[in-house]
């Protein structure tokens, strides 16, 4: 087999961002391995790969899960580089996680994203805890409209809307010519040969 011919049509880099504990890693795990675990906080960055067929194309998704803790923030600029899609996750039972998306995370995308047309998706997680909900669906929809995002509520635990969340994002990327061009470029220079940046103690904003 000719190893220079990748076995997929496009390679997309997707990012999961949001406060620590909102369920980013659980969403990723639920989507990539069909399981749900209560996970300990991600240290720095983690990423998983999933091959999916959507819109008649075979796609390789490299989904990066970033740490929500403040001290890892200095690492983040490099993670945004080249991302075609960003999923902003909040917890519907914790208002500050929603507020921080507006005040911190949405601004980070503007600051660091290298793709002008990068697709954003707002995701309200933990709808299985409906009795504890403090952020209404209407608030989510209004914020998504305000910043031009796709919007979904889901539950990593019950898997409600988890697949849809990634699929809608990817279909929108497939609909965006500039991002498609990026995606095919990624295939040629396979991003997996580039090691993610190491967390360097001297650059971390700790203490």
Share of helix, binned: 25-40%
User: What is the distance, rounded to the nearest whole angstrom, between the alpha carbons of the first and last residues?
Assistant: 52 Å
> How many domains?
1
Oligomer: single chain
The CATH topology annotation reads as Rossmann fold
Given as residue ranges, the uncertain stretches (5+ residues, pLDDT < 50) are 199-207
Q: Kindly state the number of beta strands.
A: 6
Major sheet attributes: 6 strands, mixed
Number of helices: 6
The helix-strand sequence is EHEEHEHEHEHH
| Strand content range | 15-25%
Instruction: State the CATH class.
Output: Alpha Beta
Radius of gyration: 17 Å
What shape does the CA trace take? globular
Structural class category:
alpha/beta
Average pLDDT score: 83
Q: Which terms would index this structure?
A:
single chain, about 210 residues, alpha/beta, Rossmann fold, 6 helices, about 20% strand
Write up this protein.
- This protein is of the alpha/beta class.
- Residues 199-207 have low confidence and may be disordered.
- The chain has a single domain, classed as Rossmann fold (3-Layer(aba) Sandwich).
- Strand 5, helix 4 (137-146) and strand 6 (150-153) form a beta-alpha-beta unit.
- Helix content is 33%, strand content 22%.
- It has helices spanning 24-33, 76-80, 95-112, 137-146, 162-174, 177-188; strands at residues 10-17, 45-54, 57-66, 85-91, 119-125, 150-153.
- A six-stranded mixed β-sheet has the order 2-3-1-4-5-6, sandwiched between helices.
- The chain is built from six helices and six strands.
């Amino acid at each position: 087999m000719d190893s220079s011919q990748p076995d997929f049509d496009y390679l997309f880099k997707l990012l999961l961002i949001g406060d620590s504990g909102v369920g980013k890693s659980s969403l990723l795990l639920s989507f990539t391995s069909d399981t749900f675990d209560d996970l300990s906080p991600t240290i720095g960055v983690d990423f998983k790969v999933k091959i999916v067929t959507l819109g008649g194309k075979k796609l390789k998704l490299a989904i990066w899960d970033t740490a929500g803790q403040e001290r890892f923030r200095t690492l983040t600029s490099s993670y945004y580089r080249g991302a075609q899609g960003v999923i902003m996750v909040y917890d519907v039972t914790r208002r500050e996680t929603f507020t921080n998306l507006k005040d911190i995370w949405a601004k980070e995308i503007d600051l660091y994203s290298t793709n002008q047309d990068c697709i954003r998706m707002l995701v309200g997680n933990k709808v299985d805890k409906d009795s504890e909900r403090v952020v209404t669906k209407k608030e989510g929809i209004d914020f998504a409209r305000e910043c031009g995002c796709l919007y979904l509520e889901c539950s990593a635990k019950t898997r409600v809307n988890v697949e849809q969340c990634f699929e809608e994002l990817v279909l929108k990327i497939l609909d965006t010519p500039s991002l498609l061009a990026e995606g095919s470029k990624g295939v040629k220079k396979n991003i997996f040969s580039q090691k993610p940046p190491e967390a360097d103690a001297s650059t971390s904003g700790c203490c």
